[in-house]
Amino acid sequence: MENQSFTATLLVSQTPEEVFAAVTNPRAWWSEEIEGGTAKLNDEFYYHYRDVHRCTMKLVEVIPGKKVVWHVLDNYFSFTEDQAEWKDTRPTFEISKEGDKTRLRFTHQGLVPSHECYEICHNAWTNYITSSMYDLITTGKGRPNTKEGNEFETTRPDRVSS
Predict the structure, then answer these.
(1) Residues 76-113: tens digit of each pLDDT
(2) Domains of the chain
(3) Can you say whether the dihedral through the CA atoms of 114, 74, 61, 161 is positive or negative?
(4) On the CB side of 6, how many CA atoms lie within 13 Å of its CA?
């Protein structure tokens, strides 16, 4: 069966090492409300967005310049019947060279269309990866949720490829 987990892909001019540095700095592209380590194998961090979403992630695979895999240890959504819907899923960042460019393929393994949060999470991840992460990689400044919880809503479909 075809993998239906959410995926977004970027193609940038920066090096795999620069892309890896951005991936492992989610405070700069996802949320300033992250506590804990985000770069080394077995690091754990806690994320929260207002009273809407909170989760604990563990880095279970880290290959510098190539791959980062988070394991969702715990999750809470205020807007789904199954509030732990993300638990035991794996946000995965794969980095590879493609000619003179670098490809970042983000897959949230286990976030599938049958999940209640899929549409909301699809839109949020698309924004974080194709806008905030892209901006962090290409300009040095992402657009994460701030400590006040201000979320941006600019989707950049021109930066998404399969």
Answers:
(1) 999 999 888 999 999 999 999 999 999 999 999 999 99
(2) 6-159 (3.30.530.20)
(3) positive
(4) 23
